[in-house]
Design goal:
single chain, 458 residues, alpha/beta, Rossmann fold, 2 domains, seven-stranded mixed β-sheet, four-stranded parallel β-sheet, 19 helices, globular, binds pyridoxal-5'-phosphate
């Protein structure tokens, strides 16, 4: 039988509902808390997000319909292909079957438009005219600028973490091409930005700072027609990404695989990991034996070294306290090239999954990741985003383990994005200019000491 490289679905087979993990968690979620330590009400979030998305954020429905207008836009690239990595398998000499879900085929080059399109659509339905947001690597900012262009009638302003803004000028041009506006963060547009610049004029910036700026701009618009959009972390973002895993399940079943043995995603704020993993956690909760791995950088070891606490999502403490693994909201990460994996916290749903034993976490150094990225590019052809190389490196580790054990495991990972705008990182790696960096324990302790007195999740 001829070997099948790519497994496709028809447009009619694209999921019509998203999957919400919250009702299936073994232990109920801790609620987000306000400054007084009491659970936040939907009304308290209303200046920041439209009410239709807040409803999704707190929903305990297992399945939520995807509006047909959103599906029509997702058809610009979805269903995305599931690809068997034969050439990578051969190079590794592994008996494992490696599959990857190729999310790099979206217009912005990553999984991020899955949620950007949905968020722009719900905001438009609610009468919003302008969205503000942050971006780390530039993928989310590009995705939201693209989504606003597709939906029409919504302006988009993006605060891009300074180090990425300087490293990746083409991302800014992409955002402008779709009609968005992109500025370097910290900026002088907001009080949060001005405060940081006064204290640390040379700061490389962080996602926590950029989030503070974007929220401040949204809530201070006197017209009330501006809202903030977040590219990861929150429950509704995880929800929108589950199309990835739901499609992958159908695609695997077309080649006779009910469940993979291993599912892997890289973890920044948690959204592409949740997208591929949550539909398989549903199977796991219902008895399937699946190993689910979140891969993160040693330089931002949220899942592997941080405690499960209540913390803010941003530096200026504008977000509610979220129950999550966190390195402390004051964390300013080393400027490693995987800009999208430098967030101090982790999605509360992904955090709850780790706490409940539905997944495990691995920290990987960037040199191992870039090496994996080069091997992937040479074998499978696509140059991966630096974030994605963490998932590839983890998949390679598991494939080597399968070889040692002589097991024909099925490994599925999320190919979250391509690296065409990240070539400076590759250049630095290939010319020997990148070094590995492990975030020191004493810095984590110093950050967390500043959170004394915060409530603790159950
Ligand atoms: C290609 C790619 N993969 C992964 C991530 C990490 O984000 P998340 O954990 O929300 O998927 C990013 C973030 O910018 C990204 O651009």
């Amino acid at each position: 039988m001829a070997r099948l490289k790519r497994i496709y679905l028809d447009e009619s087979e694209m999921p019509k509902q998203w999957y919400n993990l919250a009702p299936d968690l073994p232990t109920p979620m801790n609620p987000p808390l306000g400054p007084d330590g009491k659970p936040v009400t939907p009304e308290m979030l209303a200046p920041v997000f439209p009410m239709n998305l807040i409803e999704q954020e707190v929903s305990m429905e297992r399945w939520i319909d995807i509006p047909e207008e959103i599906r029509q836009i997702l058809f610009q690239w979805r269903p995305s292909p599931l690809v068997r990595a034969y050439e990578l398998e051969e190079a590794l000499g592994t008996p494992a079957k490696i599959y990857y879900k190729n999310e790099s085929v979206s217009p912005a080059g990553s999984h991020k438009p899955n949620s950007a399109v949905a968020q722009a659509w719900y905001n438009k339905q609610f009468g919003i005219k302008r969205l503000t947001t942050e971006t780390g690597a530039g993928q989310w900012g590009s995705a939201l600028a693209y989504a606003c262009a597709q939906i029409g009638g919504i302006e988009c302003k993006v605060y891009m973490v300074r180090v990425s803004f300087d490293q990746k000028p083409f991302r800014k041009i992409m955002m402008q091409t779709w009609g968005g506006k992109c500025v370097s963060s910290p900026s002088t547009f907001t009080q949060a930005g001005r405060n940081i610049l006064a204290e640390y004029p040379d700061t490389p910036g962080s996602l926590g700072i950029a989030i503070s700026e974007a929220i401040e701009e949204a809530v201070s618009d006197p017209s009330g027609k501006t809202r903030y959009a977040l590219g990861s972390v929150l429950n509704h973002v995880m929800l929108h990404q589950t199309v990835i895993g739901l499609e992958a399940k159908q695609q695997l079943s077309k080649v006779g695989i009910k469940n993979p043995d291993v599912v892997i995603g890289c973890c920044g704020g948690g959204s592409n990991f949740a997208g591929i993993a949550f539909p398989f956690m549903y199977e796991k909760v219902n008895g399937a034996d699946i190993q689910i791995i979140g891969a993160e950088p040693f330089s931002c070891p949220t899942l592997t070294k941080a405690p499960f606490i209540y913390d803010h999502g941003d530096v200026a403490q504008m977000t509610p306290l979220l129950p999550m693994y966190s390195l402390g909201h004051n964390f300013v990460p080393a400027p490693i090239h995987a800009g999208g994996l430098r967030f101090h916290g982790m999605s509360p749903l992904v955090s709850a999954s780790l706490r409940d034993g539905l997944m495990e976490a691995q920290a990987i150094h960037q040199s191992e990741c870039f090496e994996a990225g080069l091997l992937f590019a040479k074998t499978e052809g696509i140059i991966p985003a630096p974030e994605t190389t963490h998932a590839i490196a983890s998949a390679i580790r598991e494939a080597k383990k399968a070889k040692e054990e002589g097991k024909e495991k099925v490994i599925l990972f999320n190919f979250s994005g391509h690296g065409w705008m990240d070539l400076i990182g590759y250049d630095k790696y290939m010319s020997g200019q990148l070094s590995d960096y492990e975030y020191p324990e004493h810095e984590i302790e110093a950050n967390l000491a500043k959170l004394t007195g915060y409530p603790m999740p159950k």
